[in-house]
Structure formats: C-alpha cells, structure tokens
Design goal:
Radius of gyration: 19 Å
Distance between the termini: 67 Å
Number of strands: 0
Strand content: under 5%
Structural class: mainly alpha
Largest sheet: none
Number of helices: 9
Shape: elongated
Number of domains: 2
Length: about 180
C-alpha cells in the first residue's frame, strides 16, 4: 500500500505551482520545467497529485481560491444601478495586479470550449456573482455585462491599451444609464 502524501509538502508545492502557472500560463506546461522551478522532481509531483491532469486541476482550484479571496476583499455594491456595478467590477478585473489571474482565466476559458462541461461553471459563477440576491442586475443583464467585460478585458490584455478600453467601458456604462 502506498504511503499517503505529506499534506504540508503538497500544500507548499501547490502554492508554488500556482505562482508558476500565474506567471507562465498552462500552454505547453511540462512537468520537468515545472518541477525544476519548484525545486522538486516530476516523480514527486506525480506522487503528490497522481497525474498531470490532477495537478492542473489542483492548481486551477488554488488560483480560483485566491481569486475568490481577492473578490471578497473588494465588496461591490450590486444594489446600485447596473452601470455603477459594472464600473466597479471593471475597476477590479482590469487592475494590473489581476492581469495574471485574467490571462489564466482566458487561457482556461478558451481551452474549456473543447469541454463545455468545464466552461459552464466559468460562466455560471460570474452570472451568479453579478445577479446575486440584493443585486439590481438580473441574470440576462449580468450575461450582457459579462460579455462586455470579457471582450474589453481580452482586448486590453492582448493589445495593452488601457486608455482605450477604459474609455470604451465608460461609453458602455453611459449607454446603460440612458
């Protein structure tokens, strides 16, 4: 019978692996370079996580946990008008310190298109977040707001033109206010 993994070591490895993936992304992730960066071996990664797929799932769960903690720190009043709520969400998601999270989100989101069951929670979580109880935003409006935010954020990350995307968001919120 195999020995159970050391939870402390596994936790430390997972934290470092999440940092690595936030910096380098998942595209072409290989166990050897990851293990070298984490000062461990591919064999130990497999011992602690079972498989590369399980390691990636654990990394994505850790990144999601971190993102949820960041969201919890920033309370956004969804009882306000939708244009005010979307401006607050935009300020949060477009902040420079969130760029690694957003790049990984898009990388994961696009790869999930091959597996719709994996993409559904990425959509559902944001719709539920924006249209939660007490919100002035209904699910259909949340879907529209998410589509605008995603499109502008993807453009911002790809083209690195924050002034243009900020102005586009302001124009969209002005249209919402009419």
């Amino acid at each position: 019978m195999a020995r159970p993994t050391d939870p402390k070591r596994r936790g430390k490895t997972l934290a470092k692996a999440a940092e690595y993936v936030l910096e380098h992304g998942l595209e072409g992730l290989s166990l050897r370079p990851l293990a070298a960066a984490l000062n461990t071996s591919p064999r130990m990664l497999l011992y602690d996580f079972g498989s590369k797929e399980e390691l990636i799932d654990a990394i994505l769960a850790e990144v999601r946990r971190r993102e949820e903690a960041l969201i919890a720190e920033r309370e956004i009043d969804f009882g306000r008008a939708p244009q005010e709520a979307i401006a607050a969400v935009w300020d949060w998601v477009s902040a420079d310190e969130r760029a690694p999270f957003m790049r990984l989100f898009f990388e994961t989101y696009v790869s999930a298109l091959q597996r719709p069951e994996a993409a559904r929670p990425l959509v559902r979580d944001w719709v539920e977040f924006l249209s939660r109880p007490g919100s002035s935003v209904d699910p259909a409006t949340a879907t529209l707001l998410i589509a605008v935010i995603r499109g502008l954020l993807l453009d911002r990350l790809a083209a690195d033109d924050p002034e243009r995307t900020d102005l586009a968001l302001r124009r969209f919120t002005e249209l919402l206010g009419r």
